[in-house]
Structure formats: C-alpha cells, structure tokens
Amino acid sequence: MRKQNLRLTGCQNLCPNKPKAMKISKEGRNGTRRLKKTKIYSPLVLLLHGFPELWYSWRHQILYLADHGYRAVAPDLRGYGDTTGAPVDDHTKFTIYHIVGDLIGLLNAITSEGEKVFLVGQDWGAFVAWHMCMFRPDRVKALVNLSVPFFPWSPMGDLIQMMRVVYGEDHYMVRFQEPGDIEAELARIDVKTVVKKFFAFREPGPFYFPKGKGFHYSPNDAPVTLPPWLSEDDVEYFTSKFEKSGFTGGVNYYRVIPLNWELTAVWSGVKVTVPSKFIIGDLDLVYHLPGIKDYIHNGGFHDDVPLLEEIVVLDNAAHFINQEKPDEINKNIIEFLKKF
Fold this sequence. Notes:
Layout: E1 7-10, H1 11-14, E2 23-25, E3 34-36, E4 44-48, H2 59-67, E5 71-76, H3 96-110, E6 117-122, H4 124-135, E7 140-146, H5 159-167, H6 172-175, H7 181-187, H8 191-200, H9 232-245, H10 248-255, H11 257-263, E8 276-281, H12 292-297, H13 300-304, E9 308-314, H14 321-324, H15 326-337
Parallel strand pairs: 4-5, 4-6, 6-7, 7-8, 8-9
Antiparallel strand pairs: 1-5, 2-3
C-alpha cells in the first residue's frame, strides 16, 4: 500500500512569532516529509481548499486565525502541490473515503488522542468537510463551509449524470470525466494562463469547456484581467506548483464523483450532526444551480444539517470567496468559532 503524504502549511511558515501547530523535518529516512508534534493547547482549525487551489488559498485566514489565538493548519489535499504517495493516474484512489482518511491520519499525527478540531472548507474542501462531519463527528467541534452546501445522497443518480442532462457535454464537470482528455486540452495553454482563467471566471451561470475550444467564456489567446483580489505574485505561486504537479490530481476529484455515489449509498438519509455555518456569494455559480437556492433557504438544507445555525449570502461575491472577500470571511469564521 502506498502511503499518502500531505504537504502541510500552518502558522510556522507565515507567522513565525505565533505558536506552531506542527514542525516538518526536512527529510525522513525514505525521503518523505515527517511530522513532529509539539505540545500546544490552543484550538486547531483545519482549512480545506478547493479546485484549482492549494493551501495558499487560505493565506488570509491563516494569519487572521493565528492573530486570534488559533492554530491554523492548511494542507495541500491529495494530488495537489507537493503531496506524494497517491497515484494521480488512478482516479479511484481519490474517493471521499481516501480524502477523509488522509485528514484523519493528519489529525492523529498533530493532535492529542481524540481531540476535536474546527473545520473550514471551500469548494471541494467543503464537500470533503461535510463528509468528514458525517463519517467522523467525533473529531469535529464545529464547521464553517463556503461555496458548496451539503449534497445528500440521491437515488436519482450522481452529480455528473445530472450535469450532463441539464447542461450537456460541454459542462466542465462532464468534460473532466475522460482521463487525459482535459489535461491534453489544458496542455495547449500555458499553465499561468490556465490559472488566471479559472480564477477570473465570475459569471453566475454554468462554466463550459467545449471540446477543442478551451475556456468558453474567454478564448485561449484572450488576455486575462486579474480580479483585484488576486496579484501577479499569487498567480506565480499557483503556477509554480501546477507546473510541477499538473492538474490531474485536482481533476480526479471530479472523475471519482460517479464512484463516490456508488460507495456512499449506505449513507443515504444520514444527517450531518455537527454545529455548522454556511457562507456563499450571491454570484457563485453553485448558488445558481437549479434548485440550490430553494434547498438552501426553504428548509431542505436545515433538514439535512439540523445543527446548521446560520446561512450567510455575501453581496457581490463569486466562487473563490475566501480569497475575494477575506475580511468578511475572517470575521464570519471567528464569530462562529468563538461560540465553542
């Protein structure tokens, strides 16, 4: 069995004067990074990123949480950044059980036995966080999720089937299904441009990637105007990591959606019973999926997450909300965590 090694970043890299959540030695005996625990007692907040992102997406929250006395831990998830061990050419090794298992292993390495932590997730990180709360509520004190609400298991089929019916074959989730296909198309565009175009998308409608035509909303050779919340230095960091890792690791989270649906049927009807808060932007493409607003605001969401205490919709905010609106997100996170 191949051991998954998560690339971790906490306060130690960004705020050296704050208590450290963990230390990472330069090399283990087999050349992989190892964790060393330190004795600290401030609450731990585990930050889970989305696609196409990295731990770096939480750069604003790490500093803010540290300033307010929390241990902020932001791993690169399986297949991203500097992670090792997971075979990116096999998407079946990226099921929700693999990802949650990675995080439980991480918590076992950096916390005391049985310690509960705070979870904060965005995009795919939110999807993972909902399931971690469902699978292992004994390890989670409270949850703040951004952008993606809880999606209960549906007997109607998996999300890819639904997206294909509603939006057709050009929808990005559908296009991501065939191994190697989207990678070949992205390879015809330089990595920096790919990063810019993903982050610059700000339309509340669906995201299309027509075969052979690249980004539907912006031709491949069209210049990209960066949103004000994203600097060229930020782009350089994301680019440097995706130039090394490629995009397959992140795309695998989409490719495994049908398998996740098959494997999680046993959880049908199970509720998320962790105190929760949900935040989404009014321009987020997820917020404008068919039926989502009704689900979020008219009782369905609360039925599935009975301890959902608050739903926040931020004005003039799109999908990458923790980077776009860091001040509002930071305040919302802290206000909720302070209750516990």
